[in-house]
Amino acid sequence: MGRIEELAQRYHSHIAGPLPTNLTGAERTTFIVYDKADERKLRAKVDLFEEAAHRAGRSWRAFDFTPIFAQWMATLDYRDTYFNSPPKLSIKLRKHFLIHAAEQLRAALIAEGVNENTVVAVHGVGALYGFARLSEVLDLVRTDIRGQLLVLFPGTWDNNNYRLLDARDGWNYLAIPITSFNGLLDA
After folding, report:
1. Residue percentage of the chain with pLDDT more than 70
2. Among 133, 145, 150, 182, which is least packed by CB within 10 angstroms?
3. Residue 118: φ, ψ to 5°
4. What's the rounded Cα separation, in Å, for the pair 185 and 174?
5. Residues 6+ apart with CB under 8 A from 129
6. Burial class, 49, CB count within 10 angstroms (exposed 0-12 / middle 13-18 / buried 19+)
7. Are 156 and 166 a contacting pair, CB within 8 Å?
8. What pTM value is reported for the model?
């Protein structure tokens, strides 16, 4: 069995049980932590995680951060100026892009049909790197998580500290990590 298949199997074992109703949004979050080199393999097999959710009796919604930055840039009136002088974009990135990314995720979390039995699966989080911190995006939407938020996370987890793409300083988060290194770990 390959690493991605093993992660999907571990995820199924985790989600198969009942989800307590008194958890906060952060506690309703599960990170599938995998080696950044496996990003393409995981994307090609994301349906294994969807199948695991369905086998556990959960509904599934997918959300992809990959196009978020390009979509946001396309809406900016002065985008050509920013392309010619990228440092001018940093002020907008710090606040406006972060809010845009959180609003897009929030829309998926509160969409019609999403309820306490729904898994909202987020992939493409590496596309945020250099533009916004995933931890800040998740912080802005934590109260909107109705069922379970599944974050497919290319990076590392060590001692309750997550590092996106193994490059950025990590952060502590209340999510439950599932890794290919040591299985399901309670946060």
Report:
1. 91
2. 182
3. -100, 135
4. 12
5. 164, 165, 167, 168
6. buried
7. yes
8. 0.88
Residue 78: enclosing H or E segment and its boundaries?
A: none
Q: Please name the residue that has the structure tokens 């916004």.
A: 132
Residue with tokens 């080199």: 37
pLDDT confidence band for 13 (50 / 70 / 90): very high
Give the position of tokens 């999403």: 114
Structural domains of the chain sorted by starting position, each given as residue range(s) with its CATH number in brackets: 3-14+25-181 (3.40.50)
Contact present, 57 and 17 (Cβ < 8 Å): no
Handedness of CA 108, 167, 3, 157 (dihedral sign): negative
CA distances from 185 to 40, 94, 161 (A): 25, 33, 12
Distance CA 74, CA 105 (A): 18
Measure the CA angle with vertex 127, ends 79 and 97; round to 5°.
45
Any idea what the Cα angle at residue 138 is, between residues 136 and 142, rounded to 5°?
Answer: 125
**Cβ(150)–Cβ(32) under 8 Å?**
yes
